[in-house]
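Moderator note: this is an archived Q&A kept for reference. The question asked for a predicted structure of one protein chain; the sequence and the answer are reproduced below.
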Amino acid sequence: MLRLALASLAGTAIEFYDFFVYGTAAALVLGPLFFPSFSPLAGTLAAFGTFAVGFVARPLGSIVFGHIGDRYGRRPVLIGSLLTTGLATVAVGCVPSYATIGVAAPVLLLVLRFVQGFGLGGEWGGAVLLTAEHAPPARRALWGSFPQMGPPLGFLLANGMMLALTASLTRSQFLEWGWRVPFWAAGVLAAGGLLLRSSLAESPQFLELAAAGHRATAPVAEVLRKHWRLLLLTAGALSIGYAIFYAVSTWALAYGTEKLGVSPTLMLALVMAAVAVKGVLTPVAALLGDRFGRRPMCLAGSALAAVWMFPFIALLCTGEPVLMFLGFVVALLAFVTMFSVIAAYLPELYEPRVRCTGAAVGYNLAGLLGGALTPIVATALSDGEGPPWGVACWLTGIAVLSTACFAALPETRPRPRSDGAPPEPSGEELGEQSGRQAGEKSGRQAGTKSVRA
């Protein structure tokens, strides 16, 4: 179990490294290099626009890779998504600037960012499901938190490299070639990730479904027909997590350097330190999720986000490193309280036959509101004098929406019994039972032999 969890963590870290390195580059260099005729504000908005395209592509990728995961297994998803994202990231580092090839430069950037997001759309579902479906029910949140530690690790890798380059190179060197190095490094990381994932075993629950003939023939259609309300609730619930993370890691980075005059090196260091704290706290919060439930943790995190966004903006606007760091840490604490248990929560909400599609699409749809729009809206709302309270209102509104969605979702944690007997059925087990019943019914209608659990 530990080997499987560590392999999932490593692969997820590599894929999110690819995704995050683009976000950092968008905040620091892509505006002047690929949109030089724009004003500084318009150039940043345009760069964040190409950044948002990755989030638009992620739900599409989750549909395609989710279909593969529900029909052919979780392992092919892990290999295909890593290869797609890695190749696109290396290619971004090879795109000439606007000064060299003109308008073709931002067009190529846009296309490659789409491909990058498409590949990442399949990553989370495959990695999380392979880990969660192997894990014992009583510790599913803990083991599922390992791939959830991949994003902060990938962020630290991406920004650590950017930090080293901005600190060691002159501004002109960084603009000329230095920013490309982290993108090229993605090729080496992807090769290592493919080597790790090639030896992983297939999920036992998928093997059971395949042996019984209960795989969904059209997972996307089945999710939309039978689980559309659940899909919308999970997307709305998770949107504040995306909004917090990209407000801290992308918008605040650009705002601090451009508006407050803080050096890029210091801003990167502060954000990285806060993300490191978040990564360390992830398994701790997951243990609490196994003890007290998934839904209470998610409600606590979204409620903390709702009350912290105005203090977060106030602390950021001081320009003082310690106060900015405090704002970042508490915001990410709200994030980790929710997202540490999501790797267990989302799979448990969906029945196994459509789990890869449902969980991945719900997770990536949340990125459209929280991740794609937040840097753009926040940049537009912060154009002016004084603290950007409009950004605080935007983030607070998303937090309230997420809290309402979490309140409408059921608890899924397996209920332990005092007599030492196996846990009572959770939402997941009930989903498995309904999935088996649906498979048996369709088998009888087709005149085939049904398989009883």
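Archived answer notes: The CA atoms of residues 339 and 371 lie 14 Å apart.
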